[in-house]
Known about the structure:
By secondary structure, this protein is of the alpha+beta class. It is built from four helices and five strands. A five-stranded mixed β-sheet has the order 2-3-1-4-5.
Amino acid sequence: MDVTEKRHWVLTDVSLVIKGRDLRPGEITPFLGIEPTGVRNPGPSKWARPGDVDGLWSISCNEHVSRDFNEQLDNILSTMESKRTELVQLTEQGYEVTVGIYGFAGNDCTLALQSDELRRIALLGFPLGVAANMNER
């Protein structure tokens, strides 16, 4: 993790996210053989963006697992690498599979992806989504 001299830590959450209009989380779990950390059935949800009615299945790695971003990312990428064949099959069925990075980005913090991490993401072939929360705490 690359942080400024002030040594403020970035709070991050790295996820494997699978979405689809007809995604049934209960079907994804046995297919992948992994328990999710988050699921949402298709349809409107008070937790989703307006108009987002897709079903969702995800595994998140956040500060409850490790406060180190690179460890979080390695955890998720290792899972995705071990299940790449199954994840490709899901995309062929019309589901969206992404690597998601979310982080609190206030207090002059920076977050850097290492070249080997970018290579691993590229080799997987799934989109990378990055979202930052810019609110000051």
